[in-house]
Amino acid sequence: MKIHKIISLAIVANLTVTSCFKTESPDYADYVDPMIGTDFHGHTFPGAALPGGMVQLSPDTGTEDWDWCSGYHYSDISLMGFSHLHRSGMGAGDWGDVLLMPTTGEVKVIPGSKENPDEGYRSRFSHEEETTSAGYYSVLLKDYAVKAELTVSTRAGFHRYTFPKSDAAHIIIDAGHGIRERYRQGSEIKIVSDTEIVGHRSSHGFVKHKNVYFCARFSKPFKASGTWNEENIKPDSAEDEGKYIGAFVDYETTENETIEVKVGISYTSIEQARLNLDTEIPGWNFDEIKKRASQTWNAALGKIEIETPEANDKTYNQNKKTTFYTALYHSLLFPATFSDVDGKYIGLDGQVHTAEDFTYLSDFSLWDTHRAEMPLLTLVEPQRNVNAIRTMLAQFEQGGWLPTPQQFGNSYTNDMIGDHPVAAIADAFQKGIAGFDAEEAYKAVRKNAMETPPAEHRSRGRIGLNDYLEKGYLPYDKVRESVSRTLEYAYNDWCVAQLAKALGKEDDYKLFMQRAANYKNVLDPETGLARPKDSEGNWLAPFNPTFVGHGDERHYTEANAWQYTWFVPHDVQGLIDFEGGRKNFISKLDTLFTMSSEVQETVSDVTGLIGQYAHGNEPSHHTLYLYDYAGAPWKTQELARKVMEELYHSGPDGLCGNEDMGQMSAWYVLSSMGFYPVAPGQNVYVIGSPEFSKVTVHLDEDYYNSPEFTIKIVNNSKDNCYIQKALFNDNPLNKTWFKHEDIKDGGTLVFQMGPEPNKSWGANPGDAPPSIKNEWSNQ
């Protein structure tokens, strides 16, 4: 069966599933293709998962090198087995815990190499015999003639293996397996009975001190079993421990005999893994669990309904729906459930806690996701947004600091830059997403912004904070990525200011608003770009603005001066003033998009280049929307369509860069609807160019005053990308932005499109989105 299932619109219209807002609705899950992003540098995984689920059950084809951070790459033709934890679009390898592999013939306990799969338990496979959908994956293992099928509940994986006739059929559990062999710390495994195996894996890599526990149950008692340690196979052994260990079970199978395995996962204990399994998958009905997974996805994806514009181009419409709903699917995978069914979880203090009245989450890749993925959750899954913030506050309570900006498992990582928990918290609070202690949240974000952690906690808090407070910038001779950190801290300070103002803390508001202007301290008037400055206030020389750099010469985060200068989302007007006014600002932006794409000393993340604009990496994601602030919104409209048409599509290479835990896809979801949150925390959406003829966002009435928000696009097509005029609730809208309150209260936004730009729409200074200058003028 081919990966990309072409389903006619007539068939889709006849498929029904229970949804949270209709008794009958289209089968949105059929538009999802999890293979998108598995090729090139997308780093996605094709296996089975649920929205925000703990388990992501997926095949592993490789565990080393950058393009195998998700464990799978489309270029491979053999696989090692099916493991239970994966991350989508990460640039760091980890996870891949608890791998199962069905085999026949001789028992082999090493995976073997891609060059010679026969030396281990690997099997060749073909994409033509691989099927993927939302919550389900299957593949034929050619070397064993075994069909493997996978589905999931939130905290458990469900395997169904169909064997050929064999007197030497096996299922292997590799307890030491993981993405990046060097991260292994140790494992244990125990065969409890002829239908149950339990164990634990410890690793230390990108996630520090990660412990994963599992309980595996088999539908058919095995006739024999054993363990291995390194390459030492131990028939009849019932338990083992070490770095390279596992267990195998033996069967005699008849032709097309099905054997199923259920695997519960927990981060707290084996007993909790067993509880998760027994609670979520008590029986042996694989098809029912698969159906539930599809229904769960249908309800989640159906929060946004789209209608495509090209009535006579069914292929285009199908590709657009696949691209959109797969992007929404990827956006909703994370942050992930971390607590067990009874609320237990391992905290950042290493102790077991119980989440009361919320789900404790993990995997806040906030350097990436604060930009679009977290704001998207406020629209379609506000309760998960509340869970995320309550999780951050629990982490503050137990670990003393908010994660800055990333947290995975029960570890601070601080692998990336900025202090972006405050962006997610301020954005949710400003939008009225209640359900957390705002005063406690402010206490947490203020501590991150004001206090330097002790030396033993260097992975917490803002790196280089003392220099930032003393000088108003980070000097490049003291801190790596100094320019990027300065720019992002200034935005973070603005976010703190917004929260302070909302809570009536006027003195703090003024303090942090002053600090929000610190971005100006790294703007070089000579070049018109953000430039490194040393401790004495001297600009870096010589200066190459296309240089990305490594090590101590890495002054920008996965970017260069041309790409990072524009990261002043809270004060775009201030940046316009710095560049000498609107005309000069537009000219500078034009240069960004038209200059040579050659990058000096680049890194793999800098992809999706249009000139020096790099859509494959997050620092650029808001940049094309800045024309709206300078009176040339038609250029934003043109470029938004160009990126959506050229850099997103429905093939395995349909992403131009790392998915990065949902951010790459969330950019597309929001942009394709016609708007983008340039400065989360501001309650403002900046208008681009909608791709569809109609969009209906179904809102959660626990958090919104209306059941839906509608966008209608008149005369839309592939060629008609320019807004001619706009209406909101039948009133003319000439501004290039609207407020979150407009969505919250429901209503209809209408765009009239055309093939030529209307250069007068949204061009007046009063039509531009707000920034710090507007905010100060209102004081």
Brief characterization of the structure:
The chain is an alpha+beta fold. It has 19 helices and 39 strands.
Descriptive report:
The protein is α+β, with helices and mostly antiparallel strands and 779 residues long. Among the domains are: 9-301, Beta-galactosidase, Chain A, domain 5 (Distorted Sandwich); 302-331 and 582-779, GH92 mannosidase fold (2-Layer Sandwich). Helix content is 26%, strand content 23%. It is built from 19 helices and 39 strands. The strands form 11 sheets. The chain has a 9-stranded antiparallel β-sheet with strand order 7-8-9-10-19-14-13-12-17. Strands 20-34-35-39-36-37 form a 6-stranded mixed β-sheet. Strands 5-11-18-15-16 form a 5-stranded antiparallel β-sheet, with no helix packed on it. Strand 22 and strand 23 (352-354) form a beta hairpin. It starts with 8 loop residues before the first helix and ends with a helix. Mean pLDDT is 94; it is low at 1-23. Keywords: Calcium, Hydrolase. Its cofactor is Ca(2+). Residues 272-755 form the Glycosyl hydrolase family domain. InterPro entries: 6-hairpin_glycosidase_sf (IPR008928), GH-type_carb-bd (IPR014718), GH92_a_mannosidase_put (IPR005887), GH92_N (IPR041371), Glyco_hydro_92 (IPR012939), PNGase (IPR050883).
Average pLDDT figure = 94
Give the strand order, joined by hyphens, for the main sheet. 7-8-9-10-19-14-13-12-17
Shape: globular
* Structural class by secondary-structure content: alpha+beta
In percent, how helical is the residue content? 25-40%
CATH architecture of one domain: Distorted Sandwich
Number of helices: 19
Provide the CATH topology of one domain: Beta-galactosidase, Chain A, domain 5
Number of E strands: 39
Strand % is 15-25%
- What's the CATH first level of one domain? Mainly Beta
Oligomerization category of the chains in this entry: single chain
Residue stretches low in confidence (pLDDT < 50, at least 5 long) are 1-23
Based on CA atoms alone, the radius of gyration comes out at 26 Å
Main sheet summary: 9 strands, antiparallel
Quote the distance from N terminus to C terminus. Answer: 64 Å
